[in-house]
Write a structure and sequence with these properties.
Layout (H helix, E strand, L loop, with lengths): L1 E3 L5 E3 L10 H12 L5 E2 H8 L8 H19 L7 E4 L2 E4 L7 H17 L3 H12 L14 H28 L2 H14 L4 H13 L3 H19 L5 H11 L30 H12 L9 E6 L6 H12 L7 E5 L12 H11 L11 H12 L5 E7 L2 H4 L10 E6 L9 E4 L5 H12 L1 H6 L1 H10 L4 H12 L6 H9 L4 H4 L3 H9 L7 H12 L3 E2 L1 H8 L3 H13 L4 E3 L3 E3 L2 H23 L1
Parallel strand pairs: 6-9, 6-10, 7-8, 8-9
Antiparallel strand pairs: 1-2, 3-5, 4-5, 11-13, 12-13
Helix pairs in contact: 1-3, 4-5, 5-6, 6-8, 7-8, 8-9, 8-10, 9-10, 11-12, 13-14, 16-18, 16-19, 18-20, 22-26, 23-25, 23-26, 24-25
Length: 599
């Protein structure tokens, strides 16, 4: 059996292809192929097939589509009855690597890159040609796409273009300038915002002796970038343009490609509620022309744990990725995982440099040297760097690229005072947004049938995306459970966190940044036990038995870590779920102290 995703969807046993004419069935099998070897949850398939707007009958209809697909596959290939299996609350399509064109493409691409790094250009060119020969059009071009498949298609398209650029670099190194130029004329017309393709065309034409044509190619690139993005050509194109004008291009030279920086982003969670105002603010800041004096654009999404900063950053990065012709880098700095120390900058720099193609034995071992090489590699490029879950400026600063062509998108709890960034505060969802998020997981018909109970559920979650997602996931696993019953269970403050997994560890990740015996840690635990939504400096000083100045310092630390939020009248507010977690920590500390005293 052969499966084709790189072009029109095809299922091809030995003989006649399997005809899958129903549009929704095509979406189901494309989703399963895109995640071949992994189970796809039922809720993800429902979201995909109905593009986020499923009818009441969505799940039964999905079961019917899967049953029909099983019948089609088993009729075409007798052992295929066991290919499409039920697994972990979803469906899994079993596909061997030689059977799926995407797997074969990746295999040939790995061979091509290995040959290229070994300077075996002939073998590299042949392997690149074989890899690209598996593409027969746009990926899944005849499949109705939902949110997940749209991301998959965007990633595959970018991977295809990156492979094309690498193949052309090899052709140029082999001297196939005229062939490359003809190919590049078509590609730059189809993808006018890919600056590297324009640079390759300029170089190919120059090597063919067509200097006017090379200069005209630069003019065309400049016009396209200005018309579509309002941007000037990047440093690579400008440098090549100057060299051609001065007759300084080395005929044997090549255009360096950042092969690693290619939309290296985790997927946005399937259940995601867009926040148009915040997305617009961040997108505008990341795509605005550089100010006077240039400099890198930095945006910091800051807010309490579980407020959805990471998902929002991924959505923004997807939106602006096309503006950064040399790609997108992503690093999780580990500031949101309880019990795990945050990543050290030198470790992250090493990972990013290896991703960018620097051999492992050439990555510096000191932070200063690694940061200098990192800035040098990115100099003159257009790369977006997403730094997720940062703990502070000391961790982030070495990872910010230099130059006006790059940008950084940072997520953090507290806004680092020394980080020169556009700050965008991310708080809880509006109630209507929280209900939509709940519906995307628990099912829209179910939420629509019990609107008051749904509203009570999200209010018990404090409209915190992490908590609402946990509630929706629990409800999705219990289709027999009325929302009203679940809402009643959430009223019990003693067991609420048990019903919302993930919230405790999220709060603990912030608490772990405090010393257990510090005034800030004691204030956090004590305020949780106080069970009041708002406090002030006087109350805190009395609780801790410390002078007012010491209480102010402790509260400042808690605000910085977003364990407290400012409230009107100079008071401070603790989110309800954070207060429950703080109360548990206080109880645990008191129990441990009593045990120590009695011992």
């Amino acid at each position: 059996m052969r499966f084709q995703l790189l072009g029109p969807l095809r299922v091809q046993p030995t003989g006649t292809p399997v005809r899958i004419s129903a549009r929704k069935q095509r979406t189901v099998i494309a989703m399963l192929l895109a995640h071949a070897g992994r189970a796809v949850p039922i809720r993800s398939l429902v979201t995909e097939v109905w593009d986020g707007r499923p009818p009441r009958s969505a799940v039964p209809n999905l079961h019917t589509y899967v049953m029909q697909l099983r019948h089609l596959l088993s009729a075409a290939d007798s052992p295929a009855a066991d290919r499409l299996v039920t697994s972990d609350g979803g469906y899994l399509l079993l596909v061997e690597p030689p059977e799926l064109d995407l797997f074969r493409f990746e295999e040939q691409l790995a061979r091509a890159r290995k040959a290229w790094s070994g300077e075996n250009l002939g073998a590299a060119e042949a392997a690149y040609a074989r890899a690209l020969g598996m593409w027969h059009g746009a990926p899944a071009e005849d499949v109705p796409l939902g949110p997940a498949l749209r991301t998959v298609v965007a990633d595959l398209t970018d991977r295809y273009l990156s492979t094309v650029e690498e193949h052309i670099d090899v052709q140029l190194a082999l001297g196939a300038h005229r062939e490359a130029a003809e190919r590049l004329r078509t590609l730059t017309a189809r993808y006018p915002l890919r600056e590297h393709l324009h640079a390759q065309l300029m170089l190919a034409l120059h090597r063919c002796g067509d200097r006017p044509g090379a200069l005209a190619a630069f003019a065309a690139a400049r016009h396209a970038l200005a018309e579509e993005l309002g941007l000037d050509p990047g440093a690579e194109l400008r440098r090549l343009h100057r060299m051609i004008l001065g007759h300084d291009v080395d005929p044997g030279g090549s255009v360096v490609t950042l092969r690693g920086a290619r939309r290296l982003l985790p997927p946005v969670p399937p259940a995601f509620v867009d926040r148009p105002r915040l997305v617009t603010l961040a997108t505008t800041a990341l795509t605005a022309p550089a100010g006077q004096g240039g400099g890198v654009r930095v945006v910091a999404l800051h807010g309490g744990g579980g407020s959805g900063k990471s998902a929002l950053a991924l959505r923004v990065a997807q939106r602006v990725a096309g503006r950064y012709a040399d790609g997108v880098l992503y690093a999780d700095l580990g500031g949101s995982t309880a019990g795990v120390p945050p990543a050290r900058p030198v470790e992250v720099l090493g990972e990013l440099l290896r991703t960018l193609g620097v051999p492992g034995d050439e990555v510096p071992v000191t932070e200063a040297e690694a940061a200098a090489l990192y800035r040098s590699v990115l100099a003159g490029r257009r790369v977006l760097v997403v730094l997720d879950n940062a703990t502070g400026a000391a961790q982030v600063t070495p990872l910010i690229p230099a130059g006006d062509g790059c940008a950084a998108l940072v997520t953090c709890r507290g806004l680092p005072a020394t980080l020169d960034a556009v700050p965008i505060a991310v708080g809880p969802l509006e109630e209507a947004e929280a209900v939509r998020l709940l519906a995307s997981l628990a099912g829209e018909p179910r939420v629509a049938a019990e609107p008051e109970a749904a509203a009570e559920v999200v209010r018990s979650c404090g409209r915190l995306p992490l908590a609402v997602r946990a509630a929706g996931t629990r409800l999705a696993g219990r289709p027999d459970l009325p929302l009203e019953t679940f809402a009643v269970r959430l009223r019990d403050r003693g067991s609420r966190l048990d019903l919302l997994p993930g919230v405790r560890s999220c709060v603990r990740a912030g608490y772990d940044q405090l010393s257990d015996r510090s005034d800030a840690a004691r204030a956090f635990r004590s305020l949780g036990a106080l069970d009041q939504p708002e406090v002030d400096v006087a109350v805190t000083a009395a609780l801790l038995g410390v002078p007012r100045a010491a209480a102010e310092r402790a509260l400042d630390v808690l605000v910085e870590l977003r364990l407290l939020e400012p409230a009107p009248g100079g008071r401070l507010r603790m989110h309800d779920l954070v207060r429950l977690a703080a109360a548990e920590l206080n109880h645990r500390e008191e129990t441990a102290s009593r045990g120590t005293d009695s011992g």
